[in-house]
Specification:
globular, UDP N-Acetylglucosamine Acyltransferase, domain 1, mainly beta, 176 residues, Hexapep, Gamma carbonic anhydrase family protein, Transf_Hexapept/Carb_Anhydrase, 36% strand, 11-stranded parallel beta sheet, 13% helix
Length: 176
């Protein structure tokens, strides 16, 4: 496992987390409990910080990064991810903020300053441009991402269930 500090900032993990041995986790990164980080994830909290909420899963090949402070953006853009978020395979999240109960489809890209509110589906391959806000309760698709339709109650329940499925899966991995 490549878990290492950047300068004086060390990654910190909540209880019962699973971090795959091929993941690279560097710098100012903190997770909540029951987080799972799967093979080949690269997470680099060097020029800003990263926070990952409880029961969130980050799937294979995803890149997580932050944006440095600048004259235009004095605070830069940290990466903030809420609770019960499922981040699909090979996604790119860069200096954005995600609420809770979100599914980010495979290969999606979410850029600097974008905000995704709670209870959102982001379709596979979506591009969420810098500074865009995705409102709660909708499915978004396309490049750039566009609001497709409201999510129904079954889909809303699935957002939480998806995260729970990965909590159970990481428990299997931790037991081996």
């Amino acid at each position: 496992m490549a878990i290492r500090p950047y300068k004086d900032k060390h990654p910190q993990f909540g209880q019962r987390c699973y971090i795959d041995e091929s993941a690279v986790i560097v710098g100012d990164i903190q997770t909540g409990d029951d987080v799972s980080i799967w093979p080949l994830v690269a997470a680099r909290g060097d020029v800003n910080h990263m926070r990952i909420g409880e029961r969130t899963n980050v799937q294979d090949g995803t890149v997580l990064h932050v944006t440095r402070k600048s004259a235009q953006h004095p605070k830069g853009y940290p990466l903030i991810i809420g609770d019960d978020v499922t981040i699909g395979h090979k996604c790119m999240l860069h200096g954005c903020t995600l609420g809770s109960r979100i599914l980010v489809g495979m290969g999606a890209i979410i850029m600097d300053g974008a905000v995704v509110e709670d209870d959102v589906f982001i379709g596979a391959g979506c591009l969420v441009p810098p500074g865009k806000t995705l409102k709660s309760g909708y499915l978004y698709v396309g490049s750039p991402a566009k609001q497709a339709r409201p999510i129904n109650e079954g889909e809303r329940a699935f957002l939480k269930q998806s995260a729970e499925n990965y909590v159970q899966l990481k428990e299997d991995y931790l037991a081996d």
